[in-house]
User: Fold this.
Amino acid sequence: MTDSSVCPKCGDTIPERGPTWPFCSKRCSDADLMGWFSGEYCLSRDITEEDFADPAVAQAFAEKLGTLDPYDPRFS
Assistant:
């Protein structure tokens, strides 16, 4: 089992790239979003322009999410 087949919120198995990926359900997706709204999650520092140009950051995104397409509806 890969990391992408386990819901990061509850740990249940999820289908690869399913409609609620990376979560197993809309409920887990909404619970995760609420974590951001409530302040449970936060960024450890301000994001800078250099972060987007850093090859290590680009590689980490590519390994975790695959190629990022700005027109992909999951990112709109």
User: Anything to note?
Assistant: The helical segments are 26-38, 49-53, 55-65. Residues 3-67 form a domain with the Erythroid Transcription Factor GATA-1; Chain A fold (CATH 3.30.50). The chain has one domain: 3-67. The two ends are 28 Å apart (CA to CA).
